[in-house]
Design brief:
The complex is a heterodimer of chains A (about 800) and B (about 230). By secondary structure, chain A is of the alpha+beta class. Chain A is built from 26 helices and 21 strands. The two termini of chain A are about 35 Å apart. Helices cover about 35% and strands about 25% of the residues of chain B. In chain B, the strands form two sheets. A six-stranded mixed β-sheet of chain B has the order 6-7-8-3-9-10, sandwiched between helices. A four-stranded antiparallel β-sheet of chain B has the order 2-1-4-5, covered by helices on one side. Chain B has helices at about 45-55, 75-85, 100-110, 115-130, 145-155, 175-190, 200-210; strands at about 5-10, 20-30, 35-40, 60-65, 70, 85-90, 165, 195-200, 210-215, 220-225. Chain B has about 230 residues and is an alpha/beta fold. In chain B, strand 4 and strand 5 form a beta hairpin. Classes of the chains: A alpha+beta (about 800), B alpha/beta (about 230). The interface of A and B includes residues 398, 716, 726 and 805 of A.
């Protein structure tokens, strides 16, 4: 086929139909960008962590071993287990309390930060066959008095961030040795909170806290909990009984890191699919419209010698050229959008810039062009098959009116004439109307879905953060060297733990006195509605490789706002409520007993409820204080008080007043919102806006087509006295009725999508959902959403309507 | 004598450097006159009609119709002007195929704010007067050329305009039908309707118009009164 004539015909077609060309280009830009973003998020939901884990040779398990029970020879023998591909250690390990001295803006100029139960490991170098420590700043310890702190601590919920040069006191060690932070580093699985030289470990031990031995292992098969448990059992089995005191799996860390992205993958994918469907419909509509309105031109082309193939190529090209341009721009846009989402995760693991996988950048535009090509080819082939005479005759013949019945019916309504004429006009071309309706419906359904999704996610965040009920926290300082096992910081899954900032010279009160002081202050403080003491402890659950946190309330905690997914809140000691992931991992269900070890004693409780809680990625328990106290009441000391305020109380003012009342030894803080939610809500809003814009472009194309087809009629309307405003109303009504119908159908569709996808997202995050998370649509809201379709239609039609209204009447009249 | 239409030194140019479609045209039309504007193709006849109807604006000069400076009207003003003062009849009828005959006739009245009932009544009167009331519920595609032009005339008269403008009203009709339409226009003029029509048919002009303005290359070549003029 000779391409010269086709190219010229193509250029002419593209030039004459600039609006349609722009519509195709923009639609493909938006939908390709959304599809790239969707696929990148889906593909990369695990990639940042997995890439870092592979690059840093992360430890599948971190084993803490009693050196008194396992000799170096036995430890070395574990390296030869058939399951193991690499091992590192033995490293000396100790758990102690650290006190950081940090500069503050307050009058004291400095404050001391207590961090209990910090795991320190003695390593001569950061690298090794397993667990390559990534140094983020400073340098590795080279001698005594030097310490590198874990970067995980920097990303934890601590109010301050350690930095090189910061003085540190090992208050939990004999003699309270002084150290200086020389570097900040990160272990991909948080094998330790800090590192010192091997010789330094000796200075940090106490008779109560002697050094343990840490071994790090990588296995041939460690892809799931069962495999990791089997690997851990193999290691423990290769050592004398009781030698292994703790095993930490990498899986909870991986799960926690992927939680930021994996749950949003389903909704991003849904938007991508909706966008793809809309782009197919709109492109098909554009090309079909070009063919129908170009019948005469097709006839002329054929009469001068164009073959059917050349005509088809010219019309297919009119769609594919702007589509290709749009896809290219869409890939760039999708990469920019994805970069913001994925780049942050990449920097934490120092694996360079994580972007969109190249296969996504290639496959998405290829797939879009194939789909769009098929959508364009069908009408293009139809164009090629038209006989020249018929095409010319059809192009010249007066456009046969359609929708007679609608005109007659609507003309009888007591509504201004431009409205009834406009509404009836949509019945003239049923196929085009149907395509426009579906495209608008998809856009409106996306809006309904997005509104519900945003509301659900907001409720999820509120349900997890309990910011609606537990507005204020009061934290109690942990006494150094008290022997209280606090929360393991920065390792094996983030723990949200609040510790009190102690200004210089201020000593913490004894626990009982502190509790009494706080309780009294809370009762005296106006604005206090409820408060309850909470203790956060670590327990070892039978069947789980690592310790998990337990939150125990001392008093009535029914008001704290935890939402039950199934079962009920505990009503007394010996009962626990657990998140969904706990049930999944342990294989337990409601009513089952669960045994765990606390303070060296075994406790058995019954699972009475499945609670909506994200603590430790859903591996946690909540119970009454008496459940833990039954093992050792001295150990279950209060960590903090949770406070609900009376309605109308200013939370910042309350915090200020309570801080003044309690003094500097206590930490009073507000319960802030989730960090990730604004980003996700922003993503939802952006995608919804994009899809709404695509739907609007589809409407714009329809109106432009009809305006061109009816340009002579528009001239007649104007000649007999239709004002520009009446013309705009009429043209908008061409599609407003379609939009209204689309909106009415879109509401139940969008709700169904929300009801389906939100649980899918929750499942990706390892949790089920309370019903309240899904029941988010209010009556008035639904009414407004039903108008979304009409809003899209009106928005898409306004520009061409105004253009048509302002065009000179005599110009329109000359158009034939 | 009162003036219904007054053009004063009107020029219309479509391109800055091209030949003007209408050049330095001045004339006046009194109420009740029937004026034919004649000339060869491209002489500016239809342009002149569009300027009088407010469908287009002159490059220079003034156009006053029924006391209104039509050359200064906005699109909205022009549309209102046409509803109230002007009825337009076109060579190819320009009826709306989606609407019935009655709906076509009523449309200008409804656009002017008349209720459907009143507009329907007025349309019925006109269709009866033009002997096509039997086609009220039919669609234009089913009518003959002459019948369609009668519908177009009824539509043009529905708002009782001061002026009828007809652009080649018989151009798409056979001679017999054309004569019928010509007689119809003459009857309207006889009863006082002011009429300006564009035609290239000298026979039509001489039979149905009392005055003939000849345009050549956009300029008035002659302006001849051919028969008795009807005065209001």
């Amino acid at each position: 086929m000779r391409s010269g004539p086709v190219r010229r015909a193509l250029r002419g077609g593209l030039g004459r139909r600039r609006v349609q060309t722009a519509v195709i280009g923009l639609v493909l830009l938006v939908t390709t960008g959304a599809a790239v973003l969707a696929l990148a998020v889906v593909a990369d939901s695990n990639a940042p962590f997995d890439a870092a884990f592979a690059a840093q040779r992360g430890a599948d398990i971190t084993a803490t071993i009693n050196p008194a029970r396992a000799s170096p020879a036995r430890l070395a023998a574990t390296r030869r287990l058939p399951q193991i591909v690499a091992a590192a250690g033995p490293f000396a390990e100790v758990t102690t309390s650290l006190q950081l001295t940090i500069a503050t803006a307050g009058p004291a100029g400095a404050a001391r930060l207590l961090i209990p139960s910090v795991t320190l490991v003695g390593r001569a170098a950061p690298d090794g066959p397993v667990d390559d420590i990534a140094l983020q700043s400073g340098h590795w310890p080279t001698g005594p008095g030097q310490i590198v702190l874990s970067g995980n601590q920097a990303g934890s919920s601590l109010p301050v961030q350690p930095s090189p040069g910061m003085p540190v006191t090992a208050v939990g060690a004999a003699g309270k040795p002084e150290l200086t932070v020389v570097g900040i580093a990160s272990s991909v699985t948080g094998t330790a909170d800090g590192w010192v030289t091997p010789a330094e470990i000796t200075r940090l031990t106490t008779p109560q806290e002697p050094a343990s031995t840490q071994m790090l292992y990588r296995f041939r098969a460690a892809g799931d909990d069962a495999a990791v448990r089997a690997d851990a059992a193999a290691v423990a089995g290769a050592l004398p009984p009781g030698a292994v005191t703790a095993i930490q799996s990498y899986l909870p860390v991986r799960l926690q890191e992927t939680l930021g992205i994996a749950p949003i993958a389903p909704f991003v994918a849904a938007f991508g699919i909706i966008g793809l469907a809309m782009s197919v419909l709109i492109v098909a509509n554009v090309v079909s419209g070009s063919v129908v309105s170009g019948y005469r031109r097709i006839g002329v082309l054929k009469s001068i010698g164009f073959t059917p193939g050349q005509v088809s190529a010219a019309y297919a090209g009119q769609a594919l050229i702007p589509a290709a341009a749009g896809c290219t721009a869409g890939v760039l846009a999708g990469n920019l959008l994805s970069g913001a989402l994925l780049g942050r995760a990449a920097s934490v693991y120092q694996v360079g810039t994580l972007g969109v996988p190249s296969w996504v950048n290639l496959s998405v535009p290829a797939a879009m062009l194939v789909v769009v090509g098929i959508a364009a080819l069908v009408p293009a082939i139809r164009a090629g098959r038209l006989s020249a005479i018929r095409a010319i005759a059809a192009g010249r013949a007066p456009r046969s009116g359609g929708g007679y019945g609608a005109h007659r019916l609507l003309g009888r309504l007591p509504v201004v004439r431009p409205v009834t004429i406009g509404l009836a006009a949509s019945f003239a071309r049923p196929a085009r109307t149907a395509v426009t309706l579906v495209a608008t419906l998809l856009g409106a359904a996306a809006v309904t879905f997005a509104v519900g999704l945003g509301a659900s996610l907001t409720r999820v965040e509120s349900g997890l953060s309990l910011a609606g009920t537990e507005q204020v926290f009061v934290s109690l300082p942990t006494a150094p060297g008290s022997g209280v096992s606090g929360v393991r910081m920065g390792a094996g899954g983030a723990q949200s733990t609040r510790v009190a900032l102690l200004p210089k010279g201020v000593r913490p009160a004894a626990p009982a006195a502190a509790e009494h002081a706080v309780a009294a202050a809370l009762r005296a403080q106006p604005g206090t509605a409820h408060f309850v003491a909470e203790t956060d402890q670590q327990v070892t659950v039978a069947g789980l490789a690592q310790q998990i946190p337990v939150t125990a309330f001392r008093g009535d905690a029914g008001w704290t706002g935890y939402q039950m997914i199934s079962g009920r809140w505990y009503t007394g000691p010996g009962q626990v409520v657990v998140p969904t992931h706990f049930l999944t991992v342990t294989g337990k269900s409601l009513g089952n007993p669960v045994s765990f070890t606390f303070g060296g004693r075994q406790i058995t409780a019954r699972i009475v409820g499945e609670v909506f809680d994200g603590d430790n990625s859903g591996l946690a328990m909540i119970t009454a204080w008496q459940t833990l106290a039954s093992a050792d009441p001295r150990l279950a000391q209060t960590s903090q008080y949770d406070v609900e305020l009376r309605s109308g109380t200013s939370a910042p003012a309350y915090v200020q007043a309570l801080s003044t009342a309690l003094g500097p030894a206590y930490g009073v803080s507000l319960n802030g919102a989730g960090r990730g939610l604004p980003l996700v809500l922003g993503l939802i809003d952006a995608l919804t806006l994009l899809l709404g814009a695509v739907a609007g472009l589809g409407v714009l194309n329809t109106v432009v087509l009809q305006t061109r087809e009816r340009v002579h009629d528009l001239g007649v309307f104007k000649a007999i006295g239709m004002t520009p405003r009446q013309t705009v109303v009429m043209i908008v009504c061409w599609v407003a009725g379609i939009g209204l119908v689309a909106g009415l159908i879109a509401v139940p569709l969008g709700i169904a999508l929300q009801r389906y996808l939100v649980p899918v997202m929750a499942s990706a995050a390892g949790t089920a959902l309370p019903a309240s998370i899904l029941d988010v649509y209010g009556g008035w809201q639904l009414g407004g959403l039903a108008l979304a379709g009409m809003a899209i239609a009106v928005a898409g039609s306004l520009a061409p309507a105004v253009w048509a209204a302002s065009a000179r009447t005599e110009t329109a009249m000359r158009a034939e | 004598m009162q003036t219904l239409i007054e053009l004063s030194d009107v020029t219309k140019r479509y391109d800055d450097d091209g030949h003007p479609a209408v050049e330095h045209v001045s004339f006046a039309v009194a109420p009740g006159e029937a004026v034919a504007i004649m000339g060869p193709s491209g002489s500016g006849k239809s342009t002149l009609l569009n300027l009088i109807a407010g469908l287009d604006r002159p490059t220079s000069g003034t156009v006053t119709v029924a006391g209104e400076r039509v050359d200064k009207l906005s699109e909205t003003g022009g549309a209102r002007f046409r509803r109230q003062q002007v009825g337009m009849i076109f060579q190819f009828f320009n009826l709306l195929d989606d609407l019935t005959v009655a709906d076509n006739v009523m449309l200008p009245a409804q656009l002017a704010g008349e209720s459907r009932g009143k507009a329907l009544g007025r349309a019925g009167e006109l269709l009866a007067a033009l002997h096509i009331s039997q086609h009220a519920d039919a669609y234009p595609a089913r009518l003959s050329g002459g019948e369609r032009q009668r519908v177009a005339i009824a539509r043009a008269l529905v708002n009782r305009p001061a002026l009828l403008l007809a652009d080649e009203p018989t151009g798409a009709l056979d001679s017999a039908t054309g004569s019928e339409i010509g007689e119809l226009l003459l009857d309207l003029n006889t009863s006082g309707q002011s009429l300006v029509m564009v035609t290239h048919n000298p026979d039509l002009a001489s039979r149905y118009a009392g005055r003939v303005i000849l345009l050549v290359d956009g300029r008035i070549s002659s302006d001849v009164t051919t028969g008795p003029q009807v005065r209001r």
